[in-house]
Amino acid sequence: NGEATSTSLVEEYVTMGFPKDMVVKGIKEIGHNDVNALLELLLTYK
Question: Could you tell me the pLDDT band of residue 6, with boundaries at 50, 70 and 90?
């Protein structure tokens, strides 16, 4: 179930201090399979 995975992933990044809408946007762009690419993308947003 990809939805549950992305939900827990969103919560994980929000806990790290990233805004939820930014995390959701990043997951839509990158997907939730490559967490390293997602983290790099989020760091460029900040």
Answer: confident
Distances (CA, A) of 24 to 32, 43: 10, 14
2-45 folds as: Helicase, Ruva Protein; domain 3 (1.10.8)
Residue of 31, 29, 39 lying closest to 3 (CA atoms) = 31
User: Looking at residue 30, what DSSP letter applies?
Assistant: H
Pick the closest to residue 42 from 28, 4, 1, 2 (CA basis).
Answer: 28
Q: Which two tokens stand for residue 37?
A: 């690419």
Sequence spans of domains, the chain: 2-45
pTM for this predicted structure: 0.78
